Amino acid sequence: MPCFRCGARQTDPSRGASPWRRGVRAEHQVLICPRCQTEHDWAADLDRCSACASVALVCRLGEVECRDCGHTREAQREIDAPAALVGSGAPPGDSGLSEEVAAALTRVLGRGPAH
Question: DSSP state, 63?
Fold first, then answer.
């Protein structure tokens, strides 16, 4: 899943916890890359808990849960939500994801191009 603001792809951290942050925007789980955390007011773009106003929300199995106070509610279904997830300046579509996956498979499996 890419950063919802800039579209950067998450990579595995070399050690320890990931520096990426999670949040909920338009009833969908999103990630915020370390760069966007420092360059933007990323919390202003996220949904907030209706009980305590925290942005520490997770969305799973049709529910949104606050990690600070434990308040849980059913996620509202919105038809146009995926379009709302793209932040200003984010690249459209998969931005070369197909090529990245093909290169990774070639590295891992040691295969050449398919014939």
Answer: E
